[in-house]
């Protein structure tokens, strides 16, 4: 059982509560300043506590609302940011691809002797990572074995194997490749063979150069057209250094390739090539006839009898 003191407190609390209910219900109906003053003074502590608690509850509710609102906003902004990053990446990729295609188109316009088929690099042979690539063009597109593969920068290699929808390209960096080459400089025209180096995955050398050959560092090396695979005049690289071979009878030149084989993305296959018609020679102007040149006398005829 509850003690008498506790019961008294409960009864007192109930009475005060009833008085408060009656007071607030009677506001506006009765005007009793003295009673109002007494009740206000009695209930002031309770009202202050209630107001404080209510204020704290409102603050806490607003805080929770702000937290959830900020969380939702942050999640939405993060999603928008990720979407924008993806769009920027796609735009940059499209711009890079368009730049490569424009470069290839300009090369095609400047080299009308070639019928070019654009292709994308879709992989590399895992067994020969540095010397073979896979492109997305095959026999269904007219690609055949031994066709030349280039970029606007220069020679890439040739079709090693052609399948229906893709082909394997042997790069000129493969030590087993052999490209007939020649020095582009008019007063040199030294011929040789360009091969990949077994010592480096990206180096190429021009071999079979005589000791007294007219070749110097910086010379541009192009395809010679010998051998029947590679058309003549495609840039291969520039001479980096000239060294003696192991036998000492010949020398070879290490080359800087025109093509960056580690960054191959877009290439072109030469489906057909033809000789470029040379402009007809303009005949030399003839010397004008002298104004005072004498014309031969014509014989006169007389009447016969």
Describe what you observe in this structure.
The chain is rod-shaped. It has helices at 4-26, 33-110, and strands at 114-124, 132-135, 148-151, 154-162, 167-171, 179-183, 191-196, 204-210, 220-223, 235-244, 250-257, 266-273. It contains two helices and twelve strands. The model is unreliable at 289-305 (pLDDT under 50). The protein starts with a helix and ends in a 32-residue tail after the last strand. A hairpin with a 2-residue loop joins β3 (148-151) and β4. It has a domain at 111-273: Rod shape-determining protein MreC, domain 1 (Thrombin, subunit H), CATH 2.40.10.340. The chain has 305 residues and is an alpha+beta fold. The strands form two sheets. The protein has a six-stranded antiparallel barrel. It has a six-stranded antiparallel barrel with strand order 6-7-8-11-10-9. Residues 280-305 are annotated as: Disordered. Residues 121-270 form the Rod shape-determining protein MreC beta-barrel core domain. Involved in formation and maintenance of cell shape. Residues 74-111 form a coiled coil. It holds the Pfam family MreC.
